[in-house]
Fold this protein.
Amino acid sequence: MYLYGDIGAVGFDLWQVKSGTIFDDVIVTDSVEEAKKFGEKTLKKTKEGEKKMKEKQDEEEEKKRKEEEEKKKEEEKEEEDKEEEEKEEDEKKKKDLSNDGDGWKKRWILSEYRNDYGKFNLSYGQFYNDPEEDLGLTTTEDVKNYAISAKFPKFSNKDKLLIVQYATKRFTLPDDDCGGLYIKV
């Protein structure tokens, strides 16, 4: 800092200063006491400014965190809703293919390709947990071929797996020689 007699001007020589650097609170005095008080005032003001800036940053971060949290909750809710819709759709599909008394005869179509196919009926077999829940299509004749099909609601599995799942159990104790099952979609 340079002081030029009675001109009362002050100047700074700067080099390699980062852009955005602020020069403020300049004092020109010949009193050490005045400079000390000014320095303390400047330091206090700087600390208050830093505190306010930190509080503002914290508020912005908290606001951003809350917004992200809300967005995440909304996304989770949307995902839950989507999963619930898919579950309801799956339940609808299950119901459409389920066995409800003689209703299965309307949904399941016996093949007429050959006239010697065996007949189906409903049964829960010898071993079951719940007679209504465990009720399923049952073959009724020994050593016969069977063919049956049912439509299911149209859907798309684009970019998803297609899973066809079924369970089988023997109607009687295992004394069969052989057997096989093919599923066609």
Remarks:
- The chain has two domains: 30-95, 101-185.
